[in-house]
Specification:
The chain has 135 residues and is an alpha+beta fold. It has four helices and four strands, in the order H-E-E-H-H-E-E-H. Strands 2-1-4-3 form a four-stranded antiparallel beta sheet. The longest helix is centred in the first third of the chain and has 17 residues. InterPro entries: GlcG_carb_metab_protein, PduO/GlcC-like, PduO/GlcC-like_sf.
C-alpha cells in the first residue's frame, strides 16, 4: 500500500503566515486562498485594502491549480497561444497566481493569490509553499 502526504492544520497556518508576510513586506493588498487536493477551501484571507473580487479570484486560482495538478499560469498560456476552446474547461481560475503544493510528486493542495500583478500573485503563493519545504 502506498501512503502520501496530506496538508495538516499546522501546514496550512504555516503557509498562510509566510504568504501574508511576503505580501505585507511588499505592501501588496491581496487575498490568499489555500485548498486541499480536492480543491476544498481550507483558508481564505483578504488583507486590508484588497478588492472584494480578489476573494473569488484567489479561490478560483487555487482550485484550478489543485484540480489541474499544475500552476494555473499553464492554462492562461494555452489560451494566450490561441487555444480558445480551452475556455470551455470546467475551471474558472485560468490566470497566473495558482500554485500547487507538491510533496514527493503528489499534489496535496494549492495556494491561490489575487490582488497584484499575476507574477507577484504567484510569488506570494510560492513564498507560502516554501514555508513547508515542499517542491
Amino acid at each position: 500500500m502506498r501512503t502520501r502526504a496530506v496538508l495538516t492544520d499546522e501546514d496550512v497556518l504555516r503557509m498562510a503566515e509566510a504568504a501574508v508576510a511576503h505580501a505585507r513586506a511588499s505592501q501588496w493588498n491581496v487575498t490568499i486562498a489555500i485548498v486541499d487536493e480536492g480543491a476544498h477551501l481550507l483558508f481564505l484571507r483578504r488583507l486590508d485594502g484588497a478588492s472584494p473580487i480578489t476573494s473569488e479570484i484567489a479561490m478560483a486560482k487555487a482550485r484550478t491549480a489543485a484540480l489541474g495538478r499544475r500552476e494555473s499560469k499553464l492554462y492562461e498560456d494555452v489560451i494566450k497561444q490561441g487555444r480558445t476552446a480551452f475556455l470551455s474547461a470546467p475551471l474558472t481560475g485560468m490566470l497566473e497566481g495558482g500554485v500547487p503544493v507538491i510533496v514527493n510528486g503528489d499534489v496535496i493542495g494549492a495556494l491561490g493569490v489575487s490582488g497584484v500583478k499575476s507574477d507577484q500573485d504567484a510569488a506570494i503563493a510560492r513564498a507560502g509553499i516554501a514555508a513547508l519545504g515542499a517542491e
